[in-house]
Design brief:
Blueprint (H helix, E strand, L loop, with lengths): L21 H9 L8 H5 L1 H21 L6 H26 L2 H4 L5 H25 L5 H37 L2
Helix pairs in contact: 3-4, 3-7, 4-6, 6-7
Length: 177
C-alpha cells in the first residue's frame, strides 16, 4: 500500500514532545483546501504583479481624471480602457484569492486570463499612446499616460509569465505520460 513519497520532519528531542504530523504541518504551511482564502497567492509573483497592475491603472485613471483635458475623446477612451482593465484584473485576482477556479472547472481559467491580458494589453497600449500624444505637456495627463505605459509593461510581464508556466507544464506532462 503506497501513499507516495512523504517528507517527515521530526522535532523530537530527548526531552521534548513530538512535532506535528506531516498532514498537519503541510496544511498549516500550504493552506488546506477547506480554507476560504489562498494566503500564498498574496505573496506569489503573480499576485504581487496583479496588485502592481491595479495600482498603476488606478493612479493613471486618477491622474487623467483630475487634469484639464486637451482632447475629450482621447482621455475618455483612456479612462474606459483603464477602468475595464482594472475591473478585469481585480476579477481574476479575486478568482485566484478565493480559489473559484477549483469550483468552476467548466471554464479554462488560464486561457481566459491569457486572452484578457492579450486584449487588454493591446487596448491599453493604444490608449496610452493616444493619451501621450494628446497631452501637450499637461502634467497630470503625462503622468496618466506614463502610468498607462507602466501598466502595459506589467501586463506584458503577466502574459509572459503565464505563457511560460503553461509551456513548461505542457512540456513536462508530455514526457511523463
Amino acid at each position: 500500500m503506497s501513499h507516495g513519497a512523504r517528507v517527515i520532519r521530526t522535532g523530537v528531542s530527548s526531552a521534548g514532545p513530538a512535532a506535528p504530523t506531516t498532514a498537519a504541518s503541510s496544511t498549516a504551511s500550504a493552506g488546506s483546501d477547506g480554507e476560504l482564502v489562498d494566503g500564498a497567492y498574496f505573496r506569489s509573483c503573480a499576485g504581487m504583479l496583479k496588485v502592481a497592475q491595479m495600482i498603476s491603472l488606478l493612479v493613471g485613471f486618477i491622474s487623467v481624471n483630475n487634469s484639464q483635458w486637451t482632447n475629450y475623446s482621447a482621455y475618455s477612451y483612456f479612462q474606459i480602457v483603464t477602468m475595464c482593465d482594472l475591473v478585469m484584473v481585480l476579477f481574476f485576482y479575486i478568482i485566484h484569492i478565493f480559489r473559484v477556479y477549483r469550483m468552476l472547472t467548466c471554464v479554462s481559467w488560464p486561457l481566459a486570463e491569457f486572452l484578457h491580458y492579450l486584449i487588454g494589453t493591446i487596448l491599453l497600449l493604444i490608449a496610452s499612446i493616444v493619451a501621450a500624444s494628446k497631452s501637450y505637456n499637461v502634467t497630470g495627463l503625462v503622468a496618466g499616460a506614463t502610468f498607462g505605459f507602466l501598466a502595459t509593461i506589467l501586463c506584458v510581464l503577466s502574459i509572459w509569465s503565464s505563457y511560460k508556466v503553461s509551456c513548461i507544464t505542457q512540456s513536462t506532462s508530455k514526457y511523463h505520460a
